[in-house]
C-alpha cells in the first residue's frame, strides 16, 4: 500500500526557525544594514543599495503570474517560494519577493498569503497578521491626511476645496461593505463639515502604491508631495505639498519603506513587502525590495497579484516604467482546478463546490485551457519568454495533468513543468527551476503595451482589446468629463491602472474561460499622481469588498498557550 505524504502543515509547525541574522547574512545582507524585529524577522535598510558592488553577471529577474484566478487559489506565492528553494538545490543563489498579505485577504475569500504545504514562509502567523506594522503605518498616514483635509474645510476652507471633487479616501485593512458609501460630519456644528465619502482597503490605497514604487526616501517624499487629494473650485489639483502634509506623512512611512526579510520553510531568504491589490491598484512587491534582491543574488523571483491581464500588465506598464527594470522571463501558474472552473461547467462559489467538480474530467480541462492560452498570449505581447507551471496538489488526476502537458506545445509557451512543491518542497520545483533557467537565457525583447503620449482612450482601448478581448470600450459621462479635465490640466501623460474584477478577463465575473464580443464599460476615472497613474474604473468595481458568505473569521482562535489556530 502506497504511503501517504505527511501533512505539510504539521511538518511546518515542527520547523525550527533560524535566527534572522544568519538568514540575512546567507543572502548577503550584513548586520549593519539589518534592523531585527524580534528573532525571526527584520527590516533591511535601503542604504544597502549604495554599498552594493556592481555585479559582473546580470541577475535574472523572473515574474510570477497566473491564469485568471478562482476562489480555490492557484498558488502563485507557493510557486515563488518554491522556485527560490529549488534554485538553492541547483547551487544558484535566489531570493523570492512576495507581497505582504492584507488582513482583508486573510479574513476574506483569498485566505493567507504565505504559501502553503511544504512551500511557505515563516513565521506564518506574524506575516499574515500585523507583521512589522507596515500596513498600520499606511493606514495611519492615509487617515491623517484625510482628517487634515476635512479639518481645513471645517476651519474656513482656505484651500478653496470643491468638496465634490475630493479624491483622497480614508482606509481600513478589513473588508467592510458598510463603509463603501458613508456620510461624515453628521452631528452638530462642532462635528465637522457634512459630506459623502467612501473608504477603501489599505492595500488598495495610493500610499500603498507609492510605497510599492518608491526607490528611496527622496522618491517616497517626492511622490507623497505630488499626490492629488482634491480639486479646487477653480479645477486646480490640490496636493499634499500644497496642504503642507508631506512631511508628516513621510515620517509615518519612513520605516515602512524598508523591506522585510524572513525565511522559507527550507531556510532560504525571502523579502515580504507592500501589499497593493492588483484589481484596483498595482498589485506586486516593492521596487526597493526587488532592487535589493537583484544586487545580492543570481535569480530574483517577484510575484504580482491576480492574473496576467491585471497584475502582470501593471507590472510591465507601471512598475517597470517606474523602476527601469525589465523581466527576463515570466512563469504563468495554472492548476487542474482552475482550468475546470474556466470550462464554465461548474458553479464554484465560497458557499458550495459541486461534488462532481472533484471527479476526473479531461474534457473540462481542455475547454478551460482557453483561458491559459489567452493569458500566455497576453504575456507574449510584452516580448517575455513564458514558462507554464502546473501546480500539483493531492488528488489531482494524472490524465488531467497530462492533458495540459499535451496542449502546452501549442499554446506558445517556451516550456512547461509540473510543480510538486506543495508536497515535496524545493525538490518538487527543481524541474520548474530548470525550465526557468532555460527561458531566462533566451534574449528577451521586452516592450510596453502603449506609449504614454497617446490619448487616455487609446491606452484603455489597447489594454481592453489586446489583453481582455473586448470589442469596444464605452464611457460614462462622468468618465468623459474626467478625461477632458485631465487633458486640460496636462496630467494625462500617465500609464493606466485598470480597475476591474480579477475573476474574469471581462468585467463580468460570470464569464469564465476566454470571453468574446463584449463591451467594456468605464464608469469613472481618478488621478493617482503620486503613484504616477490614472485609474479607470470598470463596471462599478469596488475598492472595498464585503466579507464572503462563509468567512474565515469564525475559524480562527487562540489556545490556552496563546498559540493561533485556524489561520492556515
Structure characterization notes:
This protein is α/β, with parallel strands linked by helices. The protein is built from 20 helices and 24 strands. The chain folds into 3 domains: 312 residues, Rossmann fold (3-Layer(aba) Sandwich), CATH 3.40.50.300; 106 residues, Domain 2, N(10)-formyltetrahydrofolate synthetase, CATH 3.30.1510; 83 residues, Roll (Formyltetrahydrofolate synthetase, domain 3), CATH 3.10.410. Strand 11 and strand 12 form a beta hairpin. Helix 4 crosses helix 18 and helix 13 packs parallel to helix 15. The chain is globular.
List the keywords.
568 residues, alpha/beta, Rossmann fold, Domain 2, N(10)-formyltetrahydrofolate synthetase, Formyltetrahydrofolate synthetase, domain 3, 3 domains, 12-stranded mixed sheet, 4-stranded mixed sheet, 24 strands, 34% helix, globular
Overview in brief:
This protein has 568 residues and is an alpha/beta fold.
